[in-house]
Amino acid sequence: MDHFLYRNGTLHAEDVAIPAIAEAVGTPFYVYSAATLTRHWRLFDEALSPLPHLVCFAVKSNSNLAVLRLLGSLGAGMDVVSGGEYRRALAAGVPGDRIVFSGVGKTADEMRLALTHGIRQFNVESEPELLALSAVAASMGATAPITLRVNPDVDAKTHEKISTGKSENKFGIPIAKARAVYALAASLPGIEVVGVDVHIGSQLTDLAPFAEAYAKVADLTRILRADGHDIRRLDLGGGLGIPYTRSNEVPPLPSDYGAMVKRVVGDLGCEIVIEPGRLISGNAGLLVSSVIYLKQGEGRDFLILDAAMNDLVRPAMYGAHHDIVPVVEPEPGTETAPQDVVGPVCETGDTFAKARALPALAAGALVAFRSAGAYGAVMASEYNTRPLIPEVLVQGDQFAVIRARPTFDEILSRDTIPEWL
Questions:
Q1: Per-residue pLDDT tens for 193-203?
Q2: What's residue 172's pLDDT?
Q3: Alpha-carbon torsion 205, 206, 209, 211, what sign?
Q4: 3-class DSSP state for residue 1?
Q5: Which ranges of 227-300 would DSSP assign to H, the alpha helix?
Q6: Pair 286, 269 in one domain
Q7: Helix %, strand %, coil % for the chain, to 5?
Q8: Among all residues, which ones are annotated catalytic?
Q9: Is the C-alpha dihedral spanning 210, 203, 145, 185 positive or negative?
Q10: Range of the domain at 346
Q11: Segment 202-243, tens digit of pLDDT
Q12: Is 52 within the bounds of a domain?
């Protein structure tokens, strides 16, 4: 469910008409619904009750400070994968003891940053990282709470570029080596083992791979406890998918996911940490764009928009689908025709959709890309010297720009021409 609905023939974000935002900030822009973000986080929180748990938002899916502040105010923790994301979480008011640090390439500087300002846990992904963290913590006279991310060799049955739990993926420690690495961790100064971590991929639409991976983690937990490790926390990652179409795609609900978690690992008495991102923010956002031209080609028509692949790269990178709808609702019975929806960037890959059935839209008409709140603005670039587009947050009948569009002068001022030129 989201809060983007037609009212009197015009698409609204909660109680704000999309054209009103377009008039105020120009197109293209992202718009997020505070009510949808709140609802989705609470669905996860309720799904894991009454188990001890913490729902950590995956900052990589949407790192805007206002979004993080909103979720943090609800009690969310944050899952970060860089020192920059860690700083964003702190700047949004989330304390260090609600931040978990994931990622395969943590640097010594990032480790020191988190140990200085507080961290719930490091999700350690390799033996070299473990040794480096021990050295950093010991040099500071600090103790680093850790989980080891195990790779259970489970096929998440998702896109190959967002699958993370198979043996050929770069993430985690092979589960067969886990006992040895946990023994190493227990012997190192500055390290406190607190749990086990696993994450098998993103945009999963079936609970079976989760259950398979979590069962392996449950077995490992019992073995590690028998070895003398105090395993009191299970970080189960994220990855539950969202519906990107309004047709027959129906991923499991957070309540279904929570019931599975309780069934598979609920008897272990561990605190459960999960790290959803897409399911919280994905359907909470739209990308809104204007039509520049409708171009008639040889055997196909091209709807050319002022948004481009630099603004929303998912279709070009993953072949991802986003429903694209007119902001002004077509009258019942309006004819549609197949159109390739493209942007103005000088790449053939700057294509959002091929042969998408849409009504005839004139220059200046607004269209909205649904389910664009995750991995949209965070992956955007200034390719072709196109400014990063505004982000807007709506709450009820009010809206605010939460990231402004930079001016061309601001963009150009970042470059420096050497004196010898």
A1: 999 999 988 88
A2: 84
A3: positive
A4: coil
A5: 254-265, 278-281
A6: no
A7: 35, 25, 40
A8: 346
A9: positive
A10: 4-31+282-413
A11: 888 889 999 999 999 999 999 999 999 999 999 999 989 887
A12: no
